[in-house]
Amino acid sequence: MPALLPACCPPVTLSPCYPVTLLPCYPVTLSPCHPVTLLPFHDLPISPFPNFHIFAKNIPMKLAVVGATGLVGREILKVLDEHKIYPELFIPVASPKSAGLPLEFNKTRYFIHSHEEAIAAKPQIAIFSAGGGTSKEWAPRYAAAGITVIDNSSAWRMNPEIPLVVPEINASILTREHKIIANPNCSTIQLVLVLAPLHAKYGIKRIVVSTYQSVTGTGAKAVKQLENERAGIAGEMAYPYPIDMNLFPHGGDFQDDGSTSEEVKLVNETRKILNDYSIRLTGTVVRVPVVGGHSESVNIEFSRDFEIRDIFDLLGSTPGIIVRDDIKNNIYPMPLEALGKDEVFVGRIRRDESQPNSLNLFVVADNLRKGAATNAVQIAEYLLAKGLV
């Protein structure tokens, strides 16, 4: 097996508009060129990609990416590369059939390694994007070797001993003892990033959400089905029906009560991340012929009343959120705009006149980015900055 190849760590030169100060307690100070208002609900400020990142001072990192050849794994490499985050030791891991195959990252050729080789190399962090079965089997073995696992599957999310983390909201719960950390479901991440500041200020009583989820959330097989159908090519089906020129209210596996596993995740994960199990939430997941990201139509009932202008100001000042709401000029969030972006886009912000203290809005994000890869990388950033690995 070829030897592990370390990546170079080129220095990052920042313009005068991007001075970044990292203090021992980890406040982030930006220059006047990039003011950021941090709201009370934030336990800790996290870098709002792409404005800056904490690796500006080249904090060393030893990183393994498990599932490096998959959709999310490749997106993790793109996030690292675009933000010039280059580990001093990088270990790509994939299935046994891929072991020994080359993989390009940071203009360097690496080779796919086995789990055993990756564990022996002792990375600080392993980001898993290889499915629940792999995570259940291997995450504890990495953890037992002292490696912190950030897992993108659903395997550990609802385990009460495992933190479920969106860094802008609840990264401060993490400690050195947490060796397995769960990344939430893609549709949950974009939803809670919008809900958290609203809940802190107005108190959420009930949420009704319908999601319109990209085929990339299902995986490469579903993307190929859509591409084949658009090209008029017969091929393997990821879904029970054609997805091109179609949509269906079916995401995940159907449960005994008629809901789907994707809908159950949305409910349970939202409550866990916001640490409020009194919130009533119901959802319907719809699969749509889109590759740019997931969209969500969200209706929220609050305990306290609000002014619409305050909602705009609150969301507009929340790191990681971009408000796109100018109906006179037909500006609103769309998957086409979200594709390849790290932020969560929100628009169509308006009062629900059918009942008191209620709000409608529309949320869009690239499910492979903030919904998976970006969130995992941000967790890794936090762990390194706080000396938790």
Note down, in words, how this protein is organized.
It contains ten helices and 15 strands. The N terminus is likely disordered. Helix content is 28%, strand content 20%. The protein has two domains: 179 residues, NAD(P)-binding Rossmann-like Domain (Rossmann fold), CATH 3.40.50.720; 181 residues, Dihydrodipicolinate Reductase, domain 2 (2-Layer Sandwich). The protein is globular, with a radius of gyration of 21 Å. Strands 11-10-12-15-14-13 form a six-stranded mixed sheet. Strands 4-3-7-8-9 form a five-stranded parallel sheet, with helices on both faces.
Q: What tags apply to this protein structure?
A:
15 strands; Dihydrodipicolinate Reductase, domain 2; 2 domains; five-stranded parallel β-sheet; single chain; about 20% strand; Rossmann fold
State the shape.
globular
Contiguous runs where pLDDT drops below 50 for at least 5 residues: 1-57
Helix run count: 10
Number of strands: 15
Q: What is the strand content? A: 15-25%
Structure described in brief:
This protein is of the alpha/beta class and 389 residues long. The protein has helices spanning 71-82, 115-121, 132-144, 167-170, 186-202, 220-231, 261-274, 308-316, 335-338, 369-385; strands at residues 21-22, 28-29, 62-66, 89-93, 102-105, 108-111, 125-128, 148-151, 180-182, 204-213, 280-287, 294-302, 321-323, 344-351, 358-365.
